[in-house]
Amino acid sequence: MKHHHLRALVAIADHGSINAAARALCLTQPAITKAMRELETEAGVPLLARNSWGVTLTNDGQALLARARLIVCEIERAEAELAQRRGINESRLRIGVSPLPGISLLPPAFSRFRRVMPDVSVDFLEFDPPRLQEHLRNGQVDFGLTATQVLAADPFLEYSELSVYPTSFVVRAGSPLAGATSLADLQDAEWLHQDASNSYPVYLAGLFGRHGLPPPRRVTRSTSNVLFSTLMLETDAVVPLSLASVRSPYIASLLTPLALPENPPDIQVALVLREGAILTRTADYFIHCIRESTGLGNGSEPK
Length: 303
Known about the structure:
Elements: H1 3-15, H2 18-25, H3 29-43, E1 48-51, E2 54-57, H4 59-85, E3 92-97, H5 99-104, H6 106-116, E4 121-126, H7 129-137, E5 143-147, E6 157-165, E7 167-172, E8 191-193, H8 200-210, E9 219-221, H9 225-234, E10 239-242, H10 243-246, E11 255-257, E12 267-274, H11 281-294
Parallel strand pairs: 3-4, 3-5, 8-9
Antiparallel strand pairs: 1-2, 5-12, 6-12, 7-10, 7-11
């Protein structure tokens, strides 16, 4: 299998048709068709199912796709790193993140990184946990930063704890609930969360049960960060939030932590890598900057 065969397969999967894949790769439609014909001949099975609205991958095509993505991404990283060593600035860094690292870890690390590598293209890509894990396995991001509590166990990924963040229940500043000191005061409140696994209602039921109370009836989940933030700031919802987020200068004056007898569990933020991943020096240096910013300080300066 050749590199251009696998690039064609990935492009077709991403764009949904041979013509769109050809445009994305700046190739002709016959060139993509030929590459796929050669790949199917070598594979010995059909990889594409053609229909009136385009093409889809067969089950065999889907099975090959994950490995094809990884190979294509690794070749692109190798080419970019060699170009960078020749003084050609083609390096690109893709980092998968969740909101908390974006607020607390990345700004100081990014400033450190930029002082040494001002010309590298950087993409910060926010994903829900399942998609972040998928992108890490496929090599579509160089590494991830996320809370470990929301990640399912994955034998193909490696986790390295970076920081632990205390949390609190908060309400918007000026909320009539701001003076609440017991869970009983919040029995009829709206409890808002972002937990993609939807285990938060179970946690709340246990929390209230430990204090001899039935679980709250009004529990709302929003996986949209924009909507979550809007509801948090414009309604009287009770929200679990890291103290790092609460103390952020952008929202510190907008939220009030509640003085309750029990706070939500601490949030553990981890660096996540694909098992056996070979980091580019660009990715390795960004991780060094993150570790320096968190006080861990074990990384390497770029060579």
